[in-house]
Amino acid sequence: MDNAAIFKLSYGLFVLSAKDGEKDNGCIVNTVQQVTTTPNRITVAVNKGNFTCEMISKTGAFNVSVLSTDVPFDIFKRFGFQSGRDVDKLEGFEDYARGGNGIIHLSRYANAVISGKVVDTYDLGTHILFIADVTDAKVLSDKDSVTYDYYHKNIKPAPQKTEKKGWRCKICGYIYEGEELPEDFICPICKHGAADFEPIE
Ligand code: FE
Fold first, then answer.
1. Distance from the CA of 169 to the center of ligand 1, in angstroms?
2. Ligand 1 centroid distance, CA of 123 (Å)
3. 25 CA distance to ligand 1 middle (Å)
4. pTM of the full predicted structure?
5. CA-to-CA distance for 155 and 37, rounded, in angstroms?
């Protein structure tokens, strides 16, 4: 089997946000899809390690900000490379608004916001799959949506030259120093697994 075939699948990139009491939070996901139009339903799979996953499991509601091609790498660092358990991801951030459900969404760098209300969940082991009714939706701009491929080619900073020997995370650039990367290694910055690492040339 050629695992590289899996990388030919295309994905969008999104900020998935939730609110639990006074706590606002959001994370980066690439797994939002519309699965039926009648009823209008979407699914999103979220890693159980993400605080946003826990919040949506509890509250049953979320917003999806569909990222557009003007999105800077800082948005990925803010929402993707730190945990809402440790920090307030909105600190010093102004490019957001609140939807009718009270949950934040990006007001800039996103071309649409879609609100979901969870109707079912499926435990996938590492992830929870949320199946949700679309309760609201709004177009924010006419810019193109970001794909995962576009992120890698245009948004992620080029790898820095380094004397270090080891493995580099293809998602965030973290470097693991060592001959062998453990199979169960999880990137401490972006939480992606060993499959997303490449040897440093
Ligand atoms: Fe990483």
1. 5
2. 24
3. 20
4. 0.90
5. 32
